[in-house]
Amino acid sequence: MSTSTLEKRGTFLNRRKKDSRGEGDIAEKGGPVWTIVAWVATLLFFAPVAWMVLTSLHTEADAATNPPTLFSGITFENYGALFDRGVGPYLINSAMASIVSTLLVLALSIPAAYALSIRPVEKWTDVMFFFLSTKFLPAIAALLPIYLLVKRVGMLDNIWVLVILYTAMNLPIAVWMMQSFLAEVPKEILEAASVDGAGVLRSLWSIVVPMATPGIAATSLICFIFSWNEFLFAVNLTATISSTSPVFLVGFISSQGLFLAKLCAAATLVSLPVLIAGFAAQDKLVRGLSLGAVK
Amino acid sequence: MSTVADTRQDENAAPPARRATGTSARSRWIRRAPLLPALIFTIVITQIPFLVTLVISSLHWSALNPGDKNFLGLGNYNEFVGLDNYVTVFTDGRLRSAVFNTVTLTVGTVGLSLLLGLGLAILLDRKFPGRGLARTLLIAPFLIMPVASALLWKHAIYNPSYGLINGVLNWVWQLFGADQGPTIDFVSNYPMPAVIMALVWQWTPFMMLILLAGLQAQPTDILEAARVDGASSVKIFRYITLPHLRQYLELATLLGAIYIVQHIDAVFSITQGGPGSATTNLPYEIYLTTFRKFEYGEAAAAGVVTVIGTMIVATFALRVVSSLFREEQGR
């Protein structure tokens, strides 16, 4: 899209642009056929998720039939079995690592975003791109030195190692997201506050944070999703005490006997927090995934 | 968006009142202060390990038979070998096949999920009953924990005796009177397509979301004008939508590529890199070299090669992000 056309059309049209799309310009032509195609495609894509949940509610015997049975007796025994096998501590570790690292990310990224949007430092775009470039470095190449250092200081199998690594992993995303949200805070309000004698911390806490709450919520959810799902560091740096849920899942597979229903129950259970977080943040998901580049 | 533009333009222009105070060193540091904790933290945690990796890559360091030279108190290495580990990386058959598998995996996954994502984005760009629900359901695969998704595909979908695909095939065959449908062991017979398919399923929603955002950012009046002038849907798509989507396609491709080059979860959980090394990609090979062969120097060299490869892709990605970024600012 050409920037100049947009500029000419001015604020009002720009604002409306997003809402007015999809009202069915291209839409009505194909009519019901395309609606059916869209739904069939959607259901095909969703089928594995549905299959996972359904299997998790079946007994092992029902789950392993061939051809598959869709509707046999519903049972929650598989979920009960997970807790008997001790999934609890893993979930707590995951929650601890994701929630604490997300809070740390917010504490670091909000002031940083302030210094990159509201009162920008010189060369602030370079700083932004530095943060972004760190996100492009493959984690596997950092794993060895991190492993050696963590081992040296005796912190293998310590949840705080994951907290720190997840904070570093998500900080660039959060800086980019928060920067784009803070840039939307009207400057006049901040100037008025500064005239009234509010300092940086005061205006950050009483004006910027409340106004950027939806942005902060979206950023937190994205960071939570990435840390909850992280596997590489978790599997290599933890052993028994501080392992997180993906590590539980991998260790859960036993070759003996029927286990498909329990596996599906475990997969559903560990995915549930992220599914909820993702559905809650779905309007902002694309902004987070594209590091704020697409709104 | 207009508020963003206003704020940013004003900031860039630096109003006179601010410039007067902004020149003193003290006020510059006050301005920088909120940024420093995040910046220092990022430099320490992300840059230093890479420098250490770079140094380790020049050492012969076999943790199984450690030498007597101490490396920064982290362990004992055997000797300094300069670029020998890189020679190994480029001549060793396993590592070369890992590079090849990484490319296959990345190109296959990104290509297919981009095509499917584009199709879904176009379908979802029109208004139809339940569009919101359809979008929510389509996001789900991306939100399933990657390890969970990999295990789900391996056991609940690909398994030859009770997996969903063979189950459905069996059901269809029996419908037509056969006793037993075909039994295909996907993971053993088609390991790479099996991994790619599971990843495509996870990444298609990602592509769809970015492309859908691109489609919805199209200026309506141009589309209307084209339609009034009698352009067909195909022509509108080819000459207006596709050029407009170009940078969104680039962004989706590059971000997807960067994530999938680094991907290890599905390889780890579905095939363990096998059979043989048929699906071992670079990250998994580095993992094996580090924690199974304990050849730290070789692993570090392979890591550096991966970083360089990723950086080449990332340079293009940064260019696209920065053009979108400047466009947002320019609005």
From TrEMBL, chain A:
SUPFAM superfamilies: MetI-like (SSF161098). Residues 91-281 form the ABC transmembrane type-1 domain. It comes from Kineosporia babensis. The chain crosses the membrane at residues 33-54, 95-116, 128-150, 159-183, 203-226, 233-253, 259-281. One of its GO terms (biological process) is transmembrane transport. The keyword Nucleus does not apply. It is a multi-pass membrane protein. PANTHER family: ABC TRANSPORTER PERMEASE PROTEIN, MALTOSE TRANSPORT SYSTEM PERMEASE-RELATED. Belongs to the binding-protein-dependent transport system permease family. It is found in: Cell membrane. This is Carbohydrate ABC transporter permease. Keywords: Cell membrane, Membrane, Transmembrane, Transmembrane helix, Transport. The keyword Repeat does not apply. One of its GO terms (cellular component) is plasma membrane. InterPro entries: BP-dep_ABC_trans_perm, MetI-like, MetI-like_sf.
UniProtKB/TrEMBL annotation, chain B:
Residues 13-25 have a biased composition (Low complexity). The chain crosses the membrane at residues 35-61, 98-124, 136-153, 194-215, 248-270, 299-321. One of its GO terms (biological process) is transmembrane transport. The keyword Membrane applies. It is a multi-pass membrane protein. The keyword Nucleotide-binding does not apply. Residues 99-317 form the ABC transmembrane type-1 domain. Keywords: Cell membrane, Membrane, Transmembrane, Transmembrane helix, Transport. GO terms for cellular component: plasma membrane. It holds the Pfam family BPD_transp_1. It is found in: Cell membrane. CDD domains: TM_PBP2 (cd06261). Residues 1-25 are annotated as: Disordered. InterPro entries: MetI-like (IPR000515), MetI-like_sf (IPR035906). Its main location: membrane. Belongs to the binding-protein-dependent transport system permease family. This is Sugar ABC transporter permease. It comes from Kineosporia babensis.
